[in-house]
Amino acid sequence: MESRAKLLGHPIHPMLIPLPLGLLSGSVAFDVVHRVTGDDTWGTVAAATIGAGIIGGLFAAPFGVANWAAIPDGTRAKRIGTLHGLGNVAVLSLFGASWWLRHEQPRATETLPFGLSLAGVALAAGTGWLGGELVDRLGVGVDPGANLDAPSSLSDQPAQPAQPARGTAGQVSGRPESLGLT
Fold this sequence. Notes:
Blueprint: E1 6-7, E2 10-11, H1 12-16, H2 18-37, H3 40-69, H4 76-102, H5 111-137
Antiparallel strand pairs: 1-2
Helix pairs in contact: 2-3, 2-5, 3-4, 4-5
């Protein structure tokens, strides 16, 4: 199922999510450094990183919603996409609460904001897996003609399903029997 929202031939949502995911998970690392060293600068860095991560997540969300809306109802992909999206709303909510609790004293990392961030990063790992399931297993956002020799997305040529090489029974699946190893 091809993505609705593209830039230069590639789906926008997966282009945008690494930045907020990295910022939000990085904020937890900065909180840990703050707790270990006692250096309040790291608490300030964590709070700022959370704010930037939330903004990035909010920017990526509409593109994910556009892809989700294109998934046919009643499919496993729609159910997984719903869990992925709602889970990410929860992730941003957990980090938003963490940020709000620190906004008056960003240098101080209290237990509750830190715990909310830990819960947020743990949930983000799960929603990230669901996103991978959507793309890698269910083909959401993947060009229908995608193959190892498809033309560049910047060309005017559409991707076409790969043709089997001469003398083969079909595409190689990576299974021992398809490689002639059994």
